[in-house]
Design goal:
The structure holds two protein chains of two kinds. Chain A is mainly α. Chain A has nine helices and two strands. Chain A has one domain: Serine Threonine Protein Phosphatase 5, Tetratricopeptide repeat. A four-stranded parallel beta sheet of chain B has the order 2-1-3-4, sandwiched between helices. In chain B, helix 1 runs parallel beside helix 5, helix 2 packs across helix 3 and helix 5 runs antiparallel to helix 6. The mean pLDDT of chain B is 95. Classes of the chains: A mainly alpha, B alpha/beta. At the A-B interface, helix 4 and helix 5 of A face helix 2 and helix 3 of B.
């Protein structure tokens, strides 16, 4: 079944609720290797996103919703996640502009655009202890699931599983990007907060309630 | 007119302080705008705030943006992309140190130097001699 505006909003609301619930956990992860604000930042950003969508009313154009999310995040999150997630949502929104219902292949296109946006903005690659370590395997898992004939729901579940696996795989990595890179070897042994919030967003997309 | 400066820091107070400090040297002849903190004044950077500052500091002779570190770079890069093509061509992002770079850039701009010269001066501030070795 195609994903329409209401389902997109439900995903964003689920994401906002879970980011709010997990804000202390995300901030604690960030306290170990960063500036201890990731949970508060993401919570603030998604709270602003939901307020904006509720105040203005969500358009039927799913691409327009994603662009609103991106534009709101870049000015409300505060940390590097603002421009990074902001770019991801803006690029996905541009890729899906004008669509009122997303087919499984559209979701793949949106995920791919988001990944490319984050990589370009952060000038980062997989293996550098960032959100890319969760997102890239997730996009690959989604594509592989579709290619093997699975539907969007199964493919999103595979994507969320791959994101969580990628998230856990950041623990032994040495950070070379972002605030954690100033810590050098001290960043080893901690799970990356950006990869964690990324996996959270993808799990929220896979869960229907 | 002169080149304008935009001071981007995670801290609103730090950005305001740098703008105040650099402004003292510019004797009111240079527009220096602080764009620090989030929209609600917390630690962080805001693309909307930086974009407004870049537009307000541009009198037609260009703008030099100075940043602290981390997300400030991503936020300013993104804000520059949002500007009209005409304005974007007149904005330079400095890799120079925030305090010293803003200070010497304000002096350079106040004597009417162009954007390339103001930017080069801010970059040079990374190796400026503060006279410590003479002490």
């Amino acid at each position: 079944m195609a994903v329409e505006s209401a389902a997109m909003l439900a995903w964003l609301q689920r994401s906002a609720s879970r980011l709010h619930e997990q804000r202390t956990y995300l901030t604690d992860l960030d306290a170990a290797i960063g500036d201890a604000d990731h949970g508060a930042n993401m919570d603030r950003g998604f709270t602003a996103v939901m307020a904006k969508l509720q105040a203005e009313g969500a358009p039927a154009d799913v691409g327009a919703i994603l662009k609103t999310v991106g534009a709101t995040l870049v000015s409300t999150v505060g940390g590097a996640s603002g421009p990074l997630y902001g770019t991801a949502f803006l690029r996905a929104g541009m890729a899906l502009a004008g669509k009122t219902a997303l087919e499984p292949g559209d979701i793949e296109e949106g995920l791919q655009a988001a990944l490319e946006g984050i990589k370009a903005r952060g000038k980062a690659q997989r293996g550098e202890k960032t959100m890319i370590d969760a997102l890239e395997p997730a996009v690959q898992a989604y594509s592989a699931a579709l290619a093997s004939g699975q539907d969007a729901k199964a493919a999103l579940a595979a994507a969320a599983d791959a994101a969580e696996e990628g998230m856990r795989a950041t623990i032994p990595l040495l950070a070379t990007k972002g605030r954690a890179s100033y810590l050098g070897e001290r960043s080893v042994g901690h799970q990356d907060p950006g990869a964690t919030s990324c996996a959270l967003l993808l799990r929220a997309a896979a869960d229907e309630s | 007119m002169t080149v304008g400066l935009v001071i981007v820091s995670h801290s609103q107070r730090l950005a305001e302080g740098v703008a105040e400090f650099a402004g003292q040297m510019a004797r009111g002849e240079v527009t220096i705008i602080a764009a620090g903190g989030t929209d609600t004044g917390e630690l962080g950077t805001s693309m909307a705030k930086v974009q407004r500052a870049l537009e307000a500091a541009d009198s037609g002779d260009g703008v030099l943006a100075l940043i602290d570190l981390g997300s400030a770079l991503l936020t300013v890069s993104m804000a520059i992309e949002q500007l009209s093509e005409e304005r974007r061509a007149r904005v330079r992002l400095s890799g120079g140190p925030l305090v010293e770079g803003a200070f010497v850039a304000a002096v350079e701009a106040s004597v009417g130097s162009d954007l390339a010269q103001v930017a080069a001066t801010a970059d040079d501030a990374a190796t400026m001699d503060k006279g410590v070795s003479d002490q």
